[in-house]
Design brief:
alpha/beta, five-stranded parallel beta sheet
């Protein structure tokens, strides 16, 4: 937050860490999806221009956190990242040295399974090091030249669209990330809802399903009919590899190969 001194920033980072260590605290994404841009105060010009360009393309963008207290900052940070489809990290030396920025990056990377983290470098000639270097993937985008920002935003938009086939603002998910209720929705889409109650009673989530390697594994979960087991096994293989959009799951071809 731009108003904060370094002492306030350390306090907020401490509050964030405390909230994350509380097992009763969960990041619960809502239906309101957006792109969240995490940046250091000194990089606000580049971050704001990037937000402007992405908004022009058609995305809903939240750029940074504005709050009048440490408690409000913590709550808004957790909500903003939990509700984000994508978190864009504006990498720079200032970002690397900020305790608040480090915690935001940590939350996005480790505590929001439905969130994709994309890095842009907003400081020319900056070479990431330390924790920020370890957090970054080999894919990043240049964003230090304001004149080139429209091109950077277009590249980011294409990457986001390639990663997540969006339907009604929803994002593509891996099967292993789905909870028990979401698995029930998948079963309904596959017309296998007769097993929904049994799966719910046995707490079968997406992580459990991806452990099923053959039809016998599904039979052990209660899918008694072999054709149904074959259908679900094909869906498991497809959805864990390609992902799925909740609410857009449809029946699969029973004649498809099981190889």
């Amino acid at each position: 937050a731009e108003y904060m001194g370094e002492d306030d920033a350390h306090i907020c980072a401490g509050f964030l860490q405390l909230r994350l260590s509380n097992k009763s605290m969960a990041l619960s994404p809502s239906e309101s999806k957006h792109i969240f841009i995490s940046h250091a105060p000194s990089d606000v010009t580049a971050a704001t221009e990037l937000a402007t360009q992405l908004t022009a393309i058609g995305y809903v963008v939240q750029c940074g956190i504005q709050a009048d207290s440490a408690a409000a900052f913590v709550d808004q940070t957790l909500t903003a990242i939990a509700d984000a489809v994508v978190v864009i990290v504006c990498a720079s030396l200032a970002y690397k040295e900020s305790s608040i920025c480090r915690m935001q990056s940590h939350i996005a990377t480790h505590h929001a399974k439905t969130t994709k983290v994309i890095h842009v470098i907003v400081e020319e000639h900056y070479r990431p090091s330390g924790w920020l270097s370890r957090a970054m993937t080999s894919l990043w985008y240049p964003a230090w030249d304001i004149a080139q920002m429209p091109l950077t935003a277009q590249s980011l938009a294409k990457h986001i669209q390639d990663q997540y086939a969006k339907t009604g603002g929803k994002m593509r998910r891996l099967l292993s990330d789905l909870n028990v209720e979401e698995v029930t929705a998948v079963l309904e889409g596959l017309r296998l809802d007769k097993y929904a109650q049994l799966f719910a009673e046995n707490c079968v989530d997406g992580a459990t399903l991806v452990e099923c390697k053959d039809e016998e594994d599904l039979v052990s979960l209660g899918v008694a009919l072999k054709p149904h087991a074959r259908k679900l096994l094909r869906a498991i293989r497809t959805y864990e590899k390609e992902g799925l959009i909740l609410g857009s799951v449809s029946d699969v071809d029973d004649t498809a190969s099981t190889s």
